[in-house]
């Protein structure tokens, strides 16, 4: 029998917790001990060393731990202002004992809580958020305040469900450590990125710590990765009410941990800034996302060509190898839109250069691609070489003159780290020992207003040499091959804070710049998570690896240096679904995997899945994996997947437009659309494209079936149109190597186009409509269409489609864009279960149709309808009574 001794500075009753799940960690740092715990005036009681108890804190807060109390309260135009004070400091240095609390009743569904130093101005995230000075007249939430100890309780007005309650644990507010907690409505969460994890975060029986600090590292579980998105959606599941959702967003860019525990509860631990917390009441997950995007901004509309298939690799090595890849793709008649090059095409890895020996003729090659309707994207790493002879490298010379580089602590000199620039291919690959002594770089400070002109000038100058169509921003966490800098970091508390979150490497300078480095706006300590995100330009395509809340206004994203494994392919789905929640809707993963060598089976399956990524790029660093390198059979399967994507591009483009103007995600989990169906909770091996298309990929090697779930609705197999006869159950679907299971939901109309070799060449091709009838025999859809490249979307066409009572109506609500013929050639109607005798198009009989009564598919062809010639057009089919 093992007896555990409970040691506590206070009475046993104050340390006694009703359950272990109610313990809140008083020593989140590593290596807690009874001595350290008692020094903080906390409770020490180790748990049994079973697997279920391994993360239960041994050091936890007593119920009477010193915290804040309300000193004054007054109403304001935006809600309420409180002054709270703490009678004594506790265990963190430089605690702030006098705080102001502002409660903003911003909208009916949005509540904002700000807690900040009453005396001294502290760093705040420079994100442009809505400024609301007038309290909402009515809200979906009720807020109540406990005065002693200070706590805030927020409930959903309609159900009484608690969506925020800070009374469960004390507030700690010090200069470099802020800690506060809240209960969760359930143990089920979505979001909290960027981390490699399953889509659903379920803390029913687990304790979980998620670190937030942008980091260059291949995606693996339990590590901080490239982006910071402290936003989550919490599921509200009760026996008495329908399933609702609410969300939380902590607007804070400092290094932080977020602890989750099975009470259930959440704890934020951040190293600086202020508490600036938003609550979104939904009540649907879609509503929560829209309310979140109202704060951080909506996604940018990408150029049309960027929706196509992109091809890239690290180490083409020479322009001859690059030409060979382009030729074999052409010989295979494989459709693709965008060719990329990585750092091996640069001269000694110097930004805004190309190797005029190994890649001699690259400018002409790019112009040749563009003449064929293709596009070109090159890479830029935000590390500018500082070792080139003075006057020979304008990016550094001009940047030094403008003083736009991040500086050393208390110095006007740039802080110097090490990234790729300055190393030639031969030195990097053959003489690694020499590489260790060169490659020193400075880092642009994009909070410096002079950096915009600097960036525009050097990018514009390079564009005159190579007319690139987009920019790939890599390594912008920022990544650094030495910890901190060439000379290390300081001994200040910025570089050695009293609390370090559970970040990879154990210190904030690990593989990045010293936290003490100075930007124009603030220290790198405050700005690391947002400092080097893409600056806004025109509509041209920008791809960024690092991201923060709001980055989707400017950039697309990919999920970093994954590996060629089926496991990595599976995790790509949850990542892409999560980034759609975060507002970076144009997101993808490196198809077939970046690291390791792929196999033909894996690459084939991944190309099928990748055809349904918003951003579709095949990129790697191993052996060649462009589609044309595989067997003829694999090529044909991959080609069909890409052609399916290209045929759906009008639907994709409309989804992008709706994301920009209406805050709708491009892809979403089944649970967000079918929230009352418990079977959909956490499904992350299937997903919905928009609300209409269900994708069920095969993610397991050497298998020919997929276990897929069909929520209760009408579903049609694509492309056959055959109706699914089983719903509300999991079913095994045939999934041989040449098939990805795609189903269209009844009630939706999908605009499509006959595909071509690339999207620019196919823009003039005829359109197709898929009409998938609901159980009520109706359906709706829409289509947005413009030139695909304009900065503003003032000249465009917009169509609303509706099918009711055997009549399809095409309503051209806007017809400003007339540079495209936009002709409708074919309509396929799924679910027509009565024999069709006649078809009437705009009041005239149309004889070109075919009805397969067994599959219930009506095909109306040879329409040749000019879609913008008439405001209203109708297609009617007459069935036998």
UniProtKB/TrEMBL annotation:
One of its GO terms (molecular function) is alpha-1,4-glucosidase activity. Transmembrane segments: none annotated. The keyword Membrane applies. The keyword Hydrolase applies. Its main location: membrane. Residues 13-63 form the P-type domain. It comes from the Eukaryota. It is found in: Endomembrane system. Belongs to the glycosyl hydrolase 31 family. This is P-type domain-containing protein. It comes from Adineta ricciae.
